[in-house]
User: Which sequence fits this backbone?
């Protein structure tokens, strides 16, 4: 009798241990993050792929149109949303082109891609190579954001309408030469998709033209999407 009781106890303990192992494995799997950028986001890191230069632009040997990215801007700023060859083929949003060039601003500019995502929790990482984002904080604003549908919200609606968002640190930070990433900074946010949907990921910016030695601009090194 005692032998049978020991056998039952051993079986019970074994079952409990097995169930605990399965539970731990499920928890570990559910908490594990993994990168899903490839196959979803296109042209997502430097050196960014580019196509033609900008016809008639004074610096058309420097700025090239970026593949797979859309750029919406109300003002005529032809080099925006393009690949900057002078800074390691990073992707750039820049307001004023340069001291001495015509001053131009960006009002509600949007740089983005639209992707199809399954229901789930995600994290979006944006790695910045350079910022020169120090002009009037009441006007100049930048959001990295995700939103349902095929476009990002306008800049004044991001905080109410986006699935998730963050903003880069305001100030001036110079990029290192191409290939030197030690000065890069990554900004992240999480968001949830309730059902399989089109989701737009990218940047919304309002920048002032060149003034007082400040050129509002951001150079991007990498965009990365994680599934949680």
Assistant:
């Amino acid at each position: 009798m005692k032998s049978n009781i020991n056998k039952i106890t051993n079986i019970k303990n074994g079952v409990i241990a097995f169930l605990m192992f399965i539970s731990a494995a499920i928890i570990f799997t559910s908490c594990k993050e993994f990168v899903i950028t490839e196959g979803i986001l296109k042209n997502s890191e430097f050196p960014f792929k580019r196509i033609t230069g900008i016809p008639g632009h004074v610096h058309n040997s420097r700025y090239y149109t970026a593949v797979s990215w859309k750029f919406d801007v109300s003002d005529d700023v032809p080099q925006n949303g393009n690949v900057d060859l002078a800074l390691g083929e990073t992707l750039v949003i820049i307001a004023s082109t340069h001291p001495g060039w015509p001053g131009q601003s960006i009002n509600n500019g949007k740089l983005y891609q639209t992707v199809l995502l399954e229901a789930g929790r995600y994290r979006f990482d944006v790695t910045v190579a350079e910022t020169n984002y120090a002009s009037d904080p009441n006007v100049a604003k930048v959001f990295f954001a995700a939103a349902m549908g095929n476009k990002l919200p306008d800049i004044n609606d991001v905080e109410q309408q986006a699935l998730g968002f963050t903003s880069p640190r305001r100030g001036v930070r110079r990029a290192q030469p191409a290939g030197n990433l030690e000065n890069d900074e990554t900004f992240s946010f999480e968001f949830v998709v309730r059902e399989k949907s089109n989701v737009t990921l990218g940047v919304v910016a309002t920048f002032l033209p060149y003034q007082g030695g400040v050129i509002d601009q951001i150079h991007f090194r990498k965009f990365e999407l994680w599934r949680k």
